[in-house]
Every structure is written in structure tokens, then in C-alpha cells.
Amino acid sequence: MNIHQVVRLLQEKRDASFIALEFDIQTTHFGFYECFLDEDEPDFVCINYEGGLLFNDIGVEGSFSFGILEDIPKELYPLKFLESSNSILNMSGLCSEYAAKVYFPSLPDPEEVFGNIEELRFAVLLNEKISELHQML
Question: How many CB atoms are closer than 10 A to CB 113?
């Protein structure tokens, strides 16, 4: 579902949260967005973001919010969201490849990925998993 649908669902189901995954195979940047209503101000949608390059310990994180009645930031338009599960809690704060492994347990164990060829194989498998997930949405 898109961000507009998520905002509508959050108005109906105020305790829900949603996740969107993104992956750029060219740069091997994996990230995820969590979307939920602010507990203290339920008319505001909060977005938390974490991401980084696979097999690189430098990542980025950020958060922002916007009012339900305000314009939704355009950078959220291409994202495809699904209802979040508890796995999002286990993904937070991890390097990208470990966060990806939490969400997609069938990926190879990052502890056992050595060298550029195996890292590329991991990236290709992750790309396939995310493509399959997006096709289902």
C-alpha cells in the first residue's frame, strides 16, 4: 500500500505501524521506514528511517513527522508499505545486512559472508526478496 493508504489506515487503527523496505542494487543501500502515529499527538504521523550500505558499518538514521491533514512529503510516494510485525523492533540499530537478515531469515548469515563475490550474492538475493515482496503488495 502507498503512504496515502497508510495514513488513512492509521486514522482507523491508531495503534498500528507500517514498514517500507528499500534496496538499491547498484549501491547496495538497504533501508527501512517505520510509519506510526505519535502517541502524544495522534494527529501526527511519525516516520523513522534506518539504512546504510551492505557490509559497511556506517549507516544513517532519521525521523520526521507530519500532520495527518498536511501534505505528505513527496519522497514517501514511491514507497510500498505493509503492516509491521515485531521484526521491526529487532531490526533497529543493526547494520544493514543484519537488519535484512532479520526481515528475510532465508538470507545467508552475514557472519558467513566473506569477500566481494559473496557480498554481491547476498545483495542479489536481497534484491530478489524485496522484488517478490513488492510484487505481492
Answer: 19
23 closest CA partner among 135, 123, 132: 123
Total number of residues shown for the chain:
137
In whole angstroms, what separates CA 16 from the centre of its chain? 15
Please, what sign has the CA dihedral across residues 55, 47, 106, 126? negative
Contact indicator for 30, 97 with CB cutoff of 8 Å: yes
Percent of the chain with pLDDT over 90: 72
46: enclosing H helix or E strand: strand 44-53
pLDDT in tens, 105-132: 999 999 999 999 999 999 999 999 999 9
Taking only the tens place, the pLDDT of each residue in 81-90 is 998 766 666 7
